[in-house]
Write a structure and sequence with these properties.
This protein is mainly α. It is 39% helix and 9% strand. About 6% of the residues have low confidence.
Length: 94
């Protein structure tokens, strides 16, 4: 799927590409680990190739064990003072 020269995937296709469930991607988003784009005027999440690469990294680091509603050790690591309190993501540090 192409949009303005940038590959974008719906949550179902993104989940299939990275081998995770759509629910897991939503958990990653709720925990602040990913920030998928939203199509203007729609709630549909759109993921780029860069997003998929970041999700694969998160999955490897987390061991796919982010508990629903529980604390996220990865988020704590990304927000660690040694990282300047910044949150890392596929679009760089924010």
């Amino acid at each position: 799927m192409e949009e303005q020269g940038r590959a974008v995937y719906t949550i179902a296709l993104a989940a299939q590409q990275v081998g995770l469930s759509a629910r897991t991607l939503r958990i990653y988003e709720q925990e602040g680990l990913i920030r998928p784009a939203r199509k203007a005027g729609r709630e549909q999440r759109l993921y780029s190739e860069q997003d998929l690469t970041w999700i694969r990294c998160i999955s490897l680091l987390a061991g796919e064990a982010l508990p629903p509603g529980g604390g996220c050790p990865l988020r704590a690591l990304l927000e660690h003072p040694g990282h300047g309190g910044a949150r890392a993501g596929p679009r760089g540090l924010s």
